[in-house]
Structures are given as structure tokens and as C-alpha cells.
Request: fold
Amino acid sequence: MTSSSEDLDAQPLLAVEDLAKRYGRHMGCEAVSFRLWPGEVLGVVGESGSGKTTLLNCVAGRLTPDAGRVLYSDRLGAVRDLHGIAEPERRMLMRTDWAFVHQNPRDGLRMGVSAGANVGEPLMAVGARNYGAIRSAAGDWLAKTEIDVGRIDDPPRTFSGGMQQRLQIARSLAAGPRLVFMDEPTGGLDVSVQARLLDLLRGLVTELKLAVIVVTHDLAVARLLSHRLLVMRGGRVVETGLTDQVLDDPQHPYTQLLVSSVLQP
Ligand SMILES: Nc1ncnc2c1ncn2[C@@H]1O[C@H](COP(=O)(O)OP(=O)(O)O)[C@@H](O)[C@H]1O
Ligand SMILES: [Mg+2]
Reply:
């Protein structure tokens, strides 16, 4: 994406300050700081093992960092320190304001219940009670994510990988999150299926004006989805900038290698 919806007057949705996470003596990520603005799609790129998933999980509240802060500006404009607030409050934010799309749809779906229930559950979690309305909203989301509405009562284990991933996206977006985290959302799919899914994601993100942090080792995915990029190496951010600038005119030697495909991600 080339156009950035960054609004310089607005408060950042997210301010990440000096974040660090270690696994024992092994570094996951270190000294990571960035801001995310409403409606902005931030891509996090780098080789396998560069710390992308660690960073994403710390920012999304799924891992506790060893140092640093994640400040989130809520719907009322109040700033919440994600790892400073109480667990129930954090869980509530994760349910009402945020969504997470996993690389493997099985990690984000309930495989044994119907597709409709998978989409309906997050609606119920934010207070929807009317069965007919929930079912109809679930049907709308299936249509929006290009899943045959006739399969609303089928469980996702009967779906193809690409359809499961679309269903995971429907489930993650149904409750109207303000911020969506994605870890290699097209990673497990065939190339032909990837392209369609990417188109779909791009359309939804634009239509819903979502703020997104998308982790990918695939620079083509990063280019298609992101307004801005963070390039990670060895747990640290080595370069950041507008997507086209970073990919067309990389400044850091590591980014230059990454872009020239000398490094196999
Ligand atoms: N649960 C874990 N225990 C120990 N080391 C881990 C764990 N998860 C990740 N790491 C290490 O942290 C570094 C960053 O990993 P990760 O965040 O998964 O990178 P990426 O998503 O870019 O592939 C790697 O060196 C990896 O081996
Ligand atoms: Mg990863």
C-alpha cells in the first residue's frame, strides 16, 4: 500500500518503548521502540529468528516483556500501560479492542464447532445476545471473507487451508477490533491461495480502516499490506521507514541484503 492514513494530530494508538524479551540467556528482542497510528499498517520483516514473533507477542499482550512498555490509547483516549494493568483488564482489551490472526488457522479457530459459531462467539463475548442477529452477522462475515454461506453449519476441520484462514480472519474481525495483530497470515498457504487471501486482507483492512501490525518474512506480502516497515535483525530494529522507501532504497546493509534476496528468509 502506498497511501498512509497517518494523522499527525492524532494520538498514537500504540507507543512501544524500549521493549525487550529474553528466553533465559537467549535474546528474543531488544531495545524496540515504535509508534502505530490509527488506520496504519505496520509491517515487521526480517529473517527467521530475527525476533518478529517475540516482538508481536509482547506487543499483543501474549508474552510478558522483561523491559519496556506498551502504551495503548483506548476508545476514550485514555492511555493504558498494557503490562502494568491487571490481567482481567488486559483480557478485556484483548477481547473488545484487539484481534490476533495466527499463521496456523488451528491456533485461532475452534475446529470442532461450526463456522457460524466461530464467528458468533466473539460477538457474544462483547455482549451480543440475539441468536438471529448473531447468525445473520456471522453469515455476513462469511460472505465478506468469501466463504460460501451455505457452509455456516460446517466445522472448520472440513474446510481447506485457505478457507480456514479466511474463517480465522472473519472470527478475528467480527467484534470490530481497533487493532489487529497478524503473524505470517499467508505463511502456511499455497502460492495461488496466498494471492487471493492477500487481496482479501488488503481490501478488508482498507475498508475497515484497521490499524494492523503484520509480521512476515515475505517482502512481497509486506509491500502489499504495509504503509510502513520495521526491519529486524538479531532481535533489534535496524531500519524503519515508509514501505516503498525501505524496499526500493534500503539504507542499512542488512536490509540491502534482504531486499536483494541474498538472504533466504
Ligand atoms: N520459546 C522460546 N524459547 C527459547 N528461545 C526462543 C523461543 N521463542 C523464540 N526463541 C528465540 O528467540 C529468537 C527470536 O525468535 P522469533 O521471535 O520466533 O523470531 P521470528 O519470528 O523472526 O522467526 C530466535 O533466536 C529464537 O530461537
Ligand atoms: Mg515468527
Observations:
- Residues 98 and 177 are 5 Å apart (CA to CA).
- The chain has nine helices and ten strands.
